[in-house]
Amino acid sequence: MADSNEKLFSDFSPVGTDQWMEKVTADLKGADFEKKLVWKTNEGFKVKPFYRMEDLEGLKTTDNLPGVFPYLRGTKKDNVWKVRQNIHVDSPKEANAKALDILNKGVDSLGFSIKGKDVSADYIETLLNDICADCVELNFSTCQNSVVKLAQLLVAYFEKKNYDATKLQGSINYDYFNKMLTKGKEKGNLIQTAKDLIEATKSLPFYRVITVNALSLNNAGAYISQELGYALAWGNEYLNLLTEAGVTATIAAKKIKFNFGISSNYFLEIAKFRAARMLWANIVSSYCPVCTRDCSNTAENDECRCAAKIKIHAETSTFNLTLFDAHVNLLRTQTEAMSAALAGVDSLTVTPFDKAYQTPDDFSERIARNQQLLLKEESNFDKVVDPAAGSYYIENLTASIAQQAWNIFLKVEDEGGFHAAVKAGTVQADINQSGKARHIALSSRKEVLLGTNQFPNFTEKAGEKRPVANKCCCGGDSNSCESTIAVLNSDRAACEFEALRLQTEAADHCPKAFMVTIGNLAMRQARAQFSCNFLACAGYEVVDNLGFETVEEGVKAAMEAKADIVVLCSSDDEYAEYAVPALKAVNNRAIFIVAGAPACMDTLKAEGIENFIHVRVNVLDTLKEYNAKLGIK
Predict the structure, then answer these.
(1) How many angstroms from the chain centroid is the CA of residue 589?
(2) In the prediction, which pLDDT does 478 show?
(3) 9 and 69 assigned to the same domain
(4) Do 121 and 262 fall within a single domain?
(5) How do residues 78-112 score in pLDDT, each as one tens digit?
(6) Cβ contact 132:167 at 8 Å
(7) Which of 25, 54, 100, 529 is 20 to 30 Å from the Cα of 496, by its Cα?
(8) Are residues 514 and 407 in the same domain?
(9) What is the average pLDDT across 349-364?
(10) 291 with 303: CB under 8 angstroms?
(11) In this structure, are 236 and 383 located in the same domain?
(12) pTM exceeds cut of 0.90
């Protein structure tokens, strides 16, 4: 069989890149290759339509092995990750019962969010009762004023239970800068709290207690290179401050954990996590961490390579979650989970699909868990390390994202470091500008959010569902809190479309849009489908039709159907014949729209036709205008 295969491949002569380009150029029939087929990403670099082995030449990323510095292919030699579920603790007894239940359903990493005022020895004892702390990863979040106390209580609890500290894994979420970014407040003594945390957990070598919550950037709409670049500067600031304060680089690096978000850009997300490991390893290496124990994983001068291993927790984004057609969120989070799992993260949280409009229920939490278990137990994603390795495409994406992220990192360093940049608001301004650009792209469908700005569910009603407001530390709306520093805008991508659709749903009368289809069969059907999808984004009732013999017949049917909007659907050439008679037939009894951008548009506008919908129209602004004309507020 081997000989047969070898003979088979030898029958095909090799095809060079020049030959491929000749074929592509011929098929383009004069169209510009760069404009037609080369994609410029939001991250600022270009992606070619095809890659070949020669595109790997000079890339150092292909020389790496799993578990070997600089860890581009993974910090370990397997691809096992921990399935994490977060629990907001109101009652320690109830949270304990829930934790024990989900541990029996496939979870092996727990994230407890505890109110600072509740932190006490009895509280921890009740919360962790019967949970085998050396069999599961335990992660804790509380207010900044209580993190040291929490750490001390956890250590005391573990000692009381006689746990082997070397078998305990987990984290305490202390992130001074995230509070500045999301709340606009700078509170407490960063260095002293961080040092006290490290001192309190010195007996827990595998507990990470300084966190880089780059997830906040992702949820604010950051581009991938921005999230990575700022995360690296964020982590480096902690390293720099701690080492200046007397903490060794080895200990400081081993206490830092990164929480990244995951967007739906599948291949770029895989590349992001690969680049993150490599870049962070090189940053830590520049601090020359010295190995403090007998370990073979050292470089020259006893430089500790273990300290350069990044610890990554990933969480699917909330930026692209939607209230309408919410089950599409399952497709988004599944794709996101796949990219993170293939990229080799250490732990993963899948956000329940209903989080945009309610506190996730048992059903949505169960589905979120099972999404990961499906990847593990049925798809065997944990059995292969870095399957993207050697891919011409992903290796080039990794190098490109690494370069873009590194440029951002250097820019922040030139500005005086991450702390100074956040205090000045330059980080927030950059991310918010990207978020705004993405909202604009969504409004014009340059970026697609399925079920929201493209192919909405025509008949769906929100009912009692309403968007969940961003919660603040004080328990109110985050936008109402006083702040002294600029904050990130974490409005979801769909929020403006949802507000428009909820506005329509709350109106006394749901507008009806009637398709007057006439003329060329293919064009009228295509235009009608486009128009139905366009107008349904506002929650309008849409009525499609097979076709009419005359525009007068079509308009008559529309008026009998009590249409509020009449859409003429035909071919560009035929609009010169049909559009003006249709406008006159409507006679201001409804909003009249022409579907398309015909060459005779200026002539039609001169005849009084105001409304045209086509691919270059801003969907959101146009629908807002129609709502205003219909008296919907």
Answers:
(1) 45
(2) 46
(3) no
(4) yes
(5) 999 999 999 999 999 999 999 999 999 999 999 99
(6) no
(7) 529
(8) no
(9) 97
(10) yes
(11) yes
(12) yes
